[in-house]
Design goal:
- With 249 residues, this protein is α+β, with helices and mostly antiparallel strands.
- The chain is built from six helices and 14 strands.
- It has a single domain, classed as 60s Ribosomal Protein L30, Chain: A.
- The strands form five sheets. It has a five-stranded mixed β-sheet.
């Protein structure tokens, strides 16, 4: 029988330009967000959260991006070059990312750092929007662009979130042939982040937010669940690579 559930929707939210060094994200919510409904997920790019926090550094000859990366990274590898471009791989807030997330695109002459404590920022935004729209079931995901090893191009990843259970657990459940799954857990929050960032675009779209509506897979919660998603490098499948990262000196 056909499902009675509505199809999941991704609603793009176009905004004015959000300008560094500091801007008011909550004023943008007031002017640009449509009315939210029970069960919505609001996805916001990390860049506009960082600008709201004032996490912007004017690009000048006096400012060294290399030093900024050392300041922001928790762990890193030595800088290297590929095709004439220099990169520094880093680990920050349980995420493998280039340059500790520091970005110059859509930044109007500034380095934009990652937001501080993105999971706390997501909670703050979520509680504000719940109160504003008088709803109980709502989640917020803060995203950044991310590169998958051995694949070209960027996808979205969640660097902070609040209001939902991030994983769908298939362990001890049967597959289509009755074999019980042993380790499989579906990463729901990064999947939603990737789809939302695809809708946002990477250029001049001015779409730093997306509303995900009617996603039947989401379990909403008022508990902090970020730590339910992440693991230490020592527990990770890629530990043989991750152990090469060192604390900045």
């Amino acid at each position: 029988m056909p499902s009675s559930m509505p199809d999941m929707r991704f609603i793009k939210v176009r905004t004015r330009k959000i300008l560094p060094p500091k801007d008011n994200l909550y004023a943008v919510f007031e002017n640009s967000l449509p009315r939210l409904k029970e069960g919505d997920v609001v996805v916001v790019t990390s860049k506009v959260v960082a600008i709201h926090q004032g996490r912007s550094v004017l690009i000048s000859e006096k400012i060294s991006k290399k030093n900024l990366i050392k300041q922001e990274a928790e762990r890193l590898m030595p800088r290297y070059e590929i095709n004439g471009h220099g990169y520094t791989l880093t680990i920050k807030n349980y995420t493998l990312i280039a340059s500790a997330g520091i970005d110059e695109s859509n930044a109007n002459g500034y380095y934009i750092l990652w937001p501080e404590h993105p999971e706390k920022a997501a909670r703050e935004i979520c509680l504000y929007l719940k109160k504003k729209f008088r709803i109980k079931k709502l989640a917020v995901i803060i995203t950044d662009s991310h590169i998958t090893p051995l694949h070209l191009g960027t996808t979205g990843i969640a660097i902070g979130f609040f209001g939902l259970v991030p994983l769908r657990d298939y362990r001890r459940k049967p597959d289509i042939f009755g074999r019980k799954l042993k380790v499989t857990r579906s990463n729901l929050v990064d999947g939603l982040a990737a789809a939302a960032v695809l809708c946002m675009g990477e250029g001049k779209e001015q779409t730093p937010m997306v509303i995900i509506r009617d996603c039947a897979e989401i379990k909403f919660t008022n508990k902090e669940t970020f730590k339910n998603l992440v693991i230490s490098p020592e527990e990770d499948l890629y530990f043989p690579l991750l152990k090469k990262f060192k604390k900045p000196s």
